[in-house]
Write a structure and sequence with these properties.
The protein is an all-alpha fold. The protein folds into two domains: 207 residues, no CATH class; 185 residues, no CATH class. It contains 19 helices and no strands. The longest helix is centred in the first third of the chain and has 38 residues. It is globular, with a radius of gyration of 21 Å. The protein starts with a helix and ends with a helix. The mean pLDDT is 81.
């Protein structure tokens, strides 16, 4: 009985709450996309998706992969969590100035859209900064509750302004729900982030976390290149369909991350054998989850969104989602071995494959071309990681025999 209780308290509950935490932003996106597409238009959702894709890229730059860096630093010096958190927060805040200028120059938003878009950037920057804290302290229910409150508010506002809502109005609604989340995080994390006695602007943070940032930005481009090309080559309606499909597929590809989140605090301390065993189990689990998940996605698209796609698209979707169950933990293994440069190089090669294949396939084959370019990229990523692992193992064996 004690072992069962220990298993539930220390394994199943953390995984369940971590899954809810990771799932809730996708649930918000899913629900909003259904409402906007069903009650307004695919074009409106496509326009919003294009804006959010750019904002997410800019926010990734301002984050400077602080989550991975802070989790490692929190684990090393838990007594200085407040000081480290605020030092990194204000150091990264400096990046907002050039990022806002880049957004205004490249996106060139209309005057009415500028204010809600900039407010959205500032609020998401702040809210994203809390992620290392609630991950480290395992307060996964915190973010799920925040997203649930935000989603309820967003749905109310979208229907309240029906049928006159446009892109500007959607941005204001997104900004409002970020305010709600900020108040919620600030209230429930006040003990963990209560103002420290001293705050330092530490520019060395950019150098120390540069390997994490390089991997993060390249990973984002590798995974989102197809969406950028879709936005460039295809009309708004196709953008919306592709964004909805890939967001649902992300639910599947993110399952390894859901499982890992409760253990991120200790993942850099795990033995290599433990990580290898975990990777194998997750990949075998993926072989079961992915086909079943794609069947579920086809039902959701046809019944909820009223979107009809061909069987070949769904077959490509299986190939799109499955590789992530192999290479997710393999990337953690590279970080554990301090092989950040190798990880960045491998992901960058996969990014080039995605960009090159997408440039030729998407204009001709549309959504199928976008999925195909991502599949080629992910297969390349998995193959390079596998080859790298074999080479490292062979070198280690040679070293032991000498």
């Amino acid at each position: 009985m004690y072992k069962l209780k220990h298993l539930i308290d220390h394994r199943l509950f953390p995984i369940a709450f971590s899954t809810l935490k990771s799932f809730s932003p996708l649930l918000v996106n899913f629900t909003l996309s259904v409402i906007v597409i069903r009650y307004y238009s695919e074009s409106l959702w496509g326009s919003l998706s294009q804006l959010l894709l750019l904002l997410n890229l800019l926010l990734l730059v301002t984050s400077w992969s602080n989550k991975e860096y802070l989790l490692r630093e929190f684990s090393k010096t838990p007594a200085l969590i407040k000081e480290i958190f605020w030092s990194v927060f204000f150091t990264r805040f400096i990046l907002l100035i050039p990022i806002i200028l880049v957004f205004v120059l490249f996106y060139q938003p209309e005057p009415a859209l500028l204010s809600p878009a900039l407010l959205l950037v500032l609020l998401r920057f702040t809210n994203n900064s809390f992620e290392p804290l609630y991950t480290y302290f395992k307060k996964f229910g915190l973010t799920f509750t925040a997203d649930l409150l935000a989603l309820t508010t967003a749905c109310f506002l979208i229907f309240y302004f029906y049928p006159e809502l446009n892109l500007n109005g959607l941005c204001w609604i997104l900004a409002i729900i970020e305010i709600i989340k900020l108040l919620w995080y600030g209230t429930l994390l006040r003990k963990e982030i209560f103002w420290p006695q001293k705050i330092n602007i530490c520019f060395t943070f950019f150098l120390k976390s540069a390997p994490f940032f390089a991997v993060g930005i390249i990973s984002f481009m590798q995974s989102k290149t197809d969406q950028f090309l879709i936005n460039y080559f295809l009309p708004d309606a196709d953008k919306a369909v592709y964004q909805v499909l890939t967001n649902l597929l992300i639910l599947l590809t993110a399952v390894p991350t859901y499982i890992a989140s409760p253990f991120m605090k200790n993942i850099y301390r795990m033995k290599q054998e433990t990580l290898n065993a975990l990777t194998k189990k997750i990949f075998l689990l993926g072989c079961i989850i992915v086909p079943a998940g794609v069947v579920g996605i086809s039902i959701v698209l046809s019944s909820v969104y009223k979107i009809k796609l061909t069987n070949s698209i769904y077959m490509l979707s299986i190939l799109y989602a499955l590789p992530a169950f192999y290479f997710s933990f393999k990337l953690y293994q590279l970080f554990k071995a301090r092989e950040d440069k190798k990880a960045a190089t491998i992901i960058f090669i996969a990014f080039l494959i995605n960009a090159g294949a997408g440039f030729f396939l998407i204009p001709t084959y549309g959504i199928a071309g976008g999925l195909s370019s991502s599949i080629l990229s992910q297969i390349t990523l998995a193959s390079l990681i596998f080859s790298s692992e074999k080479i490292s193992t062979r070198r280690s064996n040679i070293g032991l025999n000498q």
